[in-house]
Amino acid sequence: MSLKSEGVSLKSEAVGRKSRTPRTLPLHLVLIAVGALMVVPLVYAVLSGFKSTDELSRNPFGLPDHWLTGNYTGILRSGDFWRLLGNSTLIAVATTVLVVAASALAAFSFARFAFRGREVLFTLFTMGLMFPFAVAALPLFLLLRYLGLLDNPLGVILPQAAFGLPMTIIILRAFFREIPGELEEAATLDGCSPFGFFWRVLLPMARPALGTVSVLAVVTSWNNFMLPLLVFTDNTWWTLPIGVQQFQGQYSSDYARVFAYLVLAMVPALAFYSVAERQLVGGLTAGATKG
Amino acid sequence: MTSILADKRSRPGADAPPPDTVRSRGRARRRALNWLTAVGFQLPALVLFIGLVLLPMLFALYAAFFRWGGFGMPEDYIGVDNFTDLFDNPVFMGDLWRCLVLVLLTLALQLPFALAMAVLLNQRLRGRAVYRMLFFAPYVLSEAITGVLFSMVFAPDDGLADHLLGSIGLDSLGGEWFADPSWVMATLFIVMTWKYFGFHMMLYLAGLQSVPRELTEAALIDGAGAWQRFRSVTLPLLMPTIRISIFLAVIGAIQLFDLVWVITQGGPDHHSETMAVTMFQYGFKRYQVGYASAISVVMFGICLVFALAYQRFVLRRDLEGATTTMRGDGK
């Protein structure tokens, strides 16, 4: 009796699945194929890091015969990798603090003040979205050299912040404008100065927007390549992207070791992404549609 | 800045009171104070932006008219010679051509692919959050990491790509990839698609969220097929997003540098060189800074003309001019 009913329920479940599967199966196959194309290079890099370069040419995409950890631990044990990681972190954090602070002040003024020249100024900043960094790289380099900021982290932090301003201002301005004016009136009646309102009321309310623009700024700084390439002539202040490129140049024949280095360099970015995915995607789409 | 202030004081606007009553003087002072406060908040951003974005650009515009090695001040004025030389330079003309090719490939293949994936992942499918995260992940990796990774994936003979093709009997499709002048751009485009399509997909997904479900359902009731629903309901509503994504893709192609520099440095024999790479070569390797400045100026000109034309003719419908949105917001 119980067996029979079990059989029936199994059967009905199978029927139900059958009626659903044919419609979505091709879609799933497409997604799996695309997903494989996305993942295979990454998995290949991880596995290759566990092989010796000899084995890599014999056995390019199987599992390693022996899981060698030497490539990974060797890199982790040398101080170089950690120094680059520290440099990248310091530069990303400093850039983010600077660009978010300056942009929040400017966006506050754009959103809450009516003043002569506001439109001209805002147009000036939005024009900045059309200045690709590559266009300004050369004169910027000359300026930094003139100011003595080459081989100085400020030589990367300040320009990165400057080029991050337009996007950050646009996103924050849109957010600040949505906060009702009555709030500001109430704060002013209570004796709040404009800066007091900005600091004690607006910023705490804008925490989600601030999170979004901060995540954007961190990722942009973390991945920046051209500016650190120009500014840091010696390796004291190299960031991870420069380190990756240099490492490949240095160990060009030792494939396995380069793969290990690549994987280790990916980990912080991917970890950050998994934590801050929502802010990152939200920021990119907001920035694109509001710009 | 002070001139604007003075201007404001001396020329009362329509709503400003006559200047000779005591009360109005107090008001004018209050307005001036208000202006100073507003601009005071702008100052840090303004200083950074003018000093590190605008001034360097203006200086490049100046230096482009000189023969100059980058040391001291430019003195050897040569008029527009740098520009005429530039347009006689086959490498630079090739850069323009390659930029156009990349833009066309992106429009024809990468963006439609991103759109297809977005439409797919907009349905209720098991695991779609995982796919979404996976497809977007490469965007988070730096160009340096992506470049080094794919220079090894596409390494001639020993790389993953050749081994994979070999294992399914397609050895003939394998080859030199980045080292082959006629294949280098195609390979580069594959890498760019791997890295960037997820970004455009995310934009489209955000756009699709704002397409009201009632509309597609109404079309379904009216007997429209899946393709028809997409073509006549979803696509038109998604056009604003698509136009923005095209804009970003073109600006990205104009300034492409990192990936190319890491993978090929423009080689073999200039076959993957971009404007930014040419600029870098002349400015930082050969110290022809005036000439490289001219390349910067042309790149900026292309960006500017494209952005203005695009905004004028394509984006107007969506944004009413992104840069003039301040108008009529209750000043």
How far apart are the first and last residues' alpha carbons of chain A, in Å? 67 Å
Named at the architecture level, the CATH assignment of chain A is Orthogonal Bundle
Proportion in helices of chain A: over 70%
Structural class of chain A: mainly alpha
pLDDT < 50 stretches of chain A: 1-19
What is the overall number of helices of chain B?
13
CATH superfamily of the largest domain in chain B: MetI-like
What structural category do the secondary elements of chain B indicate? mainly alpha
Number of domains of chain B: 2
Into which percentage range does the β-strand content of chain A fall?
under 5%
Biggest beta sheet summary of chain B: 2 strands, antiparallel
Domain count of chain A: the total is: 1
Largest interface, counted by CB within 8 Å of the partner chain's CB: A-B, 99 and 98 residues
CATH architecture of the largest domain in chain B: Orthogonal Bundle
CATH topology-level name of chain A = MetI-like fold
Instruction: Compute the CA-based radius of gyration of chain A.
Output: 26 Å
In the CATH hierarchy, what is the class of the largest domain in chain B?
Mainly Alpha
**Rg over CA atoms of chain B:** 26 Å
Number of strands of chain B: 2
* The CATH superfamily title of chain A: MetI-like
Proportion of beta-strand residues of chain B: under 5%
Task: Describe how the helices and strands are arranged.
The complex is a heterodimer of chains A (291) and B (331).
Chain A: H1 2-49, H2 53-58, H3 70-77, H4 79-112, H5 118-127, H6 133-146, H7 154-177, H8 181-189, H9 194-205, H10 207-223, H11 226-231, H12 240-250, H13 255-290
Chain B: H1 2-10, H2 22-63, E1 66-67, E2 76-77, H3 81-88, H4 90-121, H5 128-140, H6 143-153, H7 160-167, H8 184-209, H9 213-221, H10 226-254, H11 258-263, H12 275-285, H13 289-319
Antiparallel strand pairs in B: 1-2
List keywords for this structure.
heterodimer, A: 291 residues, MetI-like fold, globular, B: 331 residues, mainly alpha, 2 strands, 1% strand, disordered C terminus
